[in-house]
Amino acid sequence: MPVSIHVRAVRTDRADIEGAVANAFAHLRRVDSVLSPWRTDSDLLRVRRGELDPAAAHPWLAEVALLAAEAEAATGGLFTSRLTGPDGSTGFDPTGLAKGWAVAGAAGHLQLVDRVAFCINAGGDLTVGVGRNLDGFASTWRIGIQDPADPMGIVDVVEVSSGAVATSGGSARGPHVVDPRTGLPVDRSGSVTVVGPDLLWADVWATASWVDEEQATRLMAHSHPAYRIIAHP
Fold this sequence. Notes:
The chain is an alpha+beta fold. It has six helices and twelve strands.
């Protein structure tokens, strides 16, 4: 997916900024080599095919598996990382949260840089923050939410200085989100956006809310009250 990194600073041509951005992209590429469900040489698919012992896989695979189990429990099963193929076989697919987790790791490189603010956009889901020596500084980013009825329009704008924004729906990719309770795609109009401190959980709750907004809202208020849902028909 397209990923862009935007940096605000008095001077953006500094070598330390360029190095941090390069390291952030390198981190994302490394995550892709471990967790991609499409790359035949990824640790994930090698384990699923039985070609790689899970104990010999990169530790990220086990870490993300634990997070996926936590997400499934928190959402009451509205979010799941268990993929069922057309032949009925099942396998671990961390796609629903690996992006947010990977972007958080990439953001860590930018958080080490002096006097910068940054925004990482990964396929329309974003995380924003600041680097070191900016205590009390707030660099607000105005983030437009795409109109689900018009891909060229903006239906809402949220302002975030530190945190994440994730959106789920069917307008861009069609009914690609499956309701784990029925095994059927969620096929309706509209979108849901979740705003909160961390992109991993914002993305998880956006997916869960798209499956069942009422239940997700109730569960999220209990386990992750710092997050909020914005729904658009």
